[in-house]
Amino acid sequence: MLVLSAYYDGNSVKTIDDYKFSKNQKLMITVLDENEIHKSSEIKVLRGSLSQYSNPQLIKKEKEAWAHAMRDKHGIR
Question: pLDDT per residue over 26-41, tens digit each?
Fold first, then answer.
């Protein structure tokens, strides 16, 4: 499967990338809702907004956290 970016110019769909289609080639077209595009860009603004709650001392323990949780849960010593 190949993904191509395109736009509708009011008359037909135009691809942004150059691609030569075969005659009777089957296509799957996904229409992006402009409102959804704006929502996703708003979410990006929130990146890092919870960093004030991070605890740098616990970051060192993150790699072992799952193993410790399983050991505590299942009683494996």
Answer: 988 888 877 665 665 5
Helices (H), ranges, the chain: 34-44, 56-59, 62-74
Question: Which CA distances in Å does 56 have to 17, 33, 46, 60?
Answer: 45, 40, 20, 8
User: Taking the model in full, what pTM does it have?
Assistant: 0.38
Model pLDDT, residue 44? 65
**Residues 42 and 31 sit within 8 Å (Cβ to Cβ):** no
Count of beta carbons in the 10 Å neighbourhood of residue 35: 7
**Distance separating alpha carbons of residues 27 and 4, to the nearest angstrom:** 11
Helix (H) or strand (E) holding 13: strand 13-15
